Amino acid sequence: MSATVLVLVETINDYLPILQDPGYELILAPTPDSRAEAIKAHAQRIDAVLTRGPLGLTAEEMNALPNLKIICVIGAGYENVDLHAAKAHGLTVTNGAGVNASSVADHTMALLLAAVRGITTADASVRRGEWAKTMRPCLAGKRLGILGLGAVGMAIARRAALGFDMSISYHNRRPRSDVPYDYRASPQALAADCDFLIAATPGGADTRAIVDAQVLNALGPQGFFINIARGSVVDTPALLSALRENTIAGAALDVFDDEPNVPDALKELENVVLTPHVAGLSPEAMEGVVRMVERNLTAFFSGRPVLTPVPMP
After folding, report:
1. Active-site residue numbers?
2. What confidence tens digit (pLDDT) does each residue in 79-120 have?
3. CA quadruple 37, 39, 40, 43: dihedral sign
4. Could you give the CA distance from residue 99 to residue 12 in angstroms, rounded to a whole number?
5. What strands lie across the sheet with 25-28, from one edge to the other?
6. Mean pLDDT computed over every residue of the chain
7. Is the preceding peptide bond at 32 cis, omega within 30 degrees of 0?
């Protein structure tokens, strides 16, 4: 297949032969400087762009790529791809919804266990030569609330229900008729009815600060908040306040507002677990998402419908 793909993603180098073997020419630009340089130097040659939600693709960049035809986003989120500009340019946009759901769900459960059972603070204590034993809650039989019951949310729900005997409730833009879980009409109602609240919703304007002070207050002093969605879905100052004042019991975060810059105020707290946006990173997930990109590119350049189109505004 003869097409040139600008690759903006920095985590998939081991799997690039999946795209190179069918004949795609790749231009690698994983940093802001190399990205700008590649667009300037190769604008006329670029047929496709491979990006991820936080990296996105701007209207200005689309304007600078006269032969661009398709944008492929790794992962489910595409919040920083300018869909209005893509539509105006007649571009196709695809994503990798559901491909890395297992990896993200596994990491979510690890974060939940680490936060609730105090794993990181216990580890640090032992390393300091201490033997401080604290009593921590268990997960079995607790109430789990999932904000966003898509592929990732469903994978989390299955692990929690079948592995830990949790009851599951959720909030979506609309109720689902194909799940056995209880729907809650708002994020606040969901938080009020659970012990652990997990954000698994897409990022973007529609979900910005959907977890606000009112939601955190509803979660309460025994509740834990886990975010594997996007940093933008939580009001970070409100979360910091809740953690400092112990109006929630703790949190675990894999995503942040201004990655890779994590507020020092979060780093100083002992009741929060932090990981560097790695929930979706596993060999299985990375191979899966790159194979999905290859299938979408090959379908598109062969004149067939793409497998995972992103709906246009």
Report:
1. 230, 259, 277
2. 999 999 999 999 999 999 889 999 999 999 999 999 999 999
3. positive
4. 14
5. 25-28, 4-7, 48-52, 70-74, 92-94
6. 96
7. no
